[in-house]
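Lecture notes, continued. The same structure-token format from the folding unit now serves as the input rather than the output. Read the line below as a description of shape only.
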């Protein structure tokens, strides 16, 4: 009887400890911090006995260069990107000169770089500083051909609306309910701090939010047909002008990049022929 009593006590202690650990991890994520080691580009530090996440400047520069220069604007494949990084002398770590292919792919898909934290299949707003702009990250996902995270595909999610109670972003979730006729999927919207102590436990159905948005649009709708037509014409003209300006800037940047590459090649050839020394190359 005593052995059974001790065994039951040990089993209860283990279960209680597991629950406490899970609750502690959930609280940490709800506060906006990573569980465990931070992703590449960030590092963990301890402040007043508490682990927080800050930007690793050296690694963050590599992540930014990877997104902006190589993948987002040059449409390279993963293998081309690996070769380009190696050619430019950008190493993954001092002990690992070449980026691992799987790690590179994981970096390009990681939403942590736009300031979010993953927990139990959901992405929450984090406290760490974003490294990549959201529009650049979305562009990379489109190039990769992968789905953007589901909550960002929902109509009103993706950091478009903030909570009126606490000011944090509204996130979306899809709930599947099983019925005799099959499965019904419903979209709900709530604050990312929905589970915080003292926060109103409110979730809105997508249909209710649709109705509120349509009422808002109706209040600002232009009633005069001629005025509405003029407004549309001005908006289309402005959009065309912006597109032409962006196209001209892109072409100019591409010409400058091509000129710099040609200049580098010429300098390298002259250096190999010993027409100029290393100091002069550095100065140029």
């Amino acid at each position: 009887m005593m052995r059974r009593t001790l065994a039951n006590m040990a089993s209860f202690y283990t279960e209680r400890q597991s629950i406490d650990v899970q609750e502690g991890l959930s609280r940490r994520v709800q506060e906006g911090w990573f569980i465990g080691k931070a992703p590449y580009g960030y590092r963990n530090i301890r402040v007043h006995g508490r682990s927080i996440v800050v930007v690793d400047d050296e690694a963050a520069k590599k992540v930014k260069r990877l997104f902006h220069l190589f993948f987002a604007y040059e449409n390279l494949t993963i293998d081309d990107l690996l070769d380009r990084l190696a050619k430019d002398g950008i190493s993954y770590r001092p002990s690992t000169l070449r980026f691992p292919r799987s790690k590179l792919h994981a970096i390009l898909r990681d939403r942590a770089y736009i300031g979010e934290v993953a927990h139990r299949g959901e992405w929450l707003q984090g406290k760490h500083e974003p490294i990549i702009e959201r529009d650049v990250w979305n562009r990379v996902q489109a190039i990769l051909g992968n789905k953007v995270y589901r909550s960002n595909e929902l109509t009103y999610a993706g950091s478009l609306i903030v909570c009126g109670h606490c000011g944090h972003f509204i996130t979306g979730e899809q709930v599947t309910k099983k019925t005799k006729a099959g499965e019904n999927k419903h979209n709900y919207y709530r604050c990312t701090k929905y589970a915080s102590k003292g926060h109103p436990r409110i979730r809105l159905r997508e249909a209710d939010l649709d109705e509120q948005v349509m009422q808002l649009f109706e209040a600002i709708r232009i009633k005069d047909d001629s005025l509405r037509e003029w407004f549309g014409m001005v908006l289309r003209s402005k959009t065309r002008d912006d597109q032409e300006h962006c196209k001209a800037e892109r072409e100019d940047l591409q010409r400058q990049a091509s000129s710099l590459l040609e200049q580098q090649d010429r300098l390298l050839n002259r250096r190999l022929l010993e027409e100029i020394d290393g100091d002069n190359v550095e100065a140029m």
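Point for the exam: Residues 146-152 have pLDDT under 50 and may be disordered.
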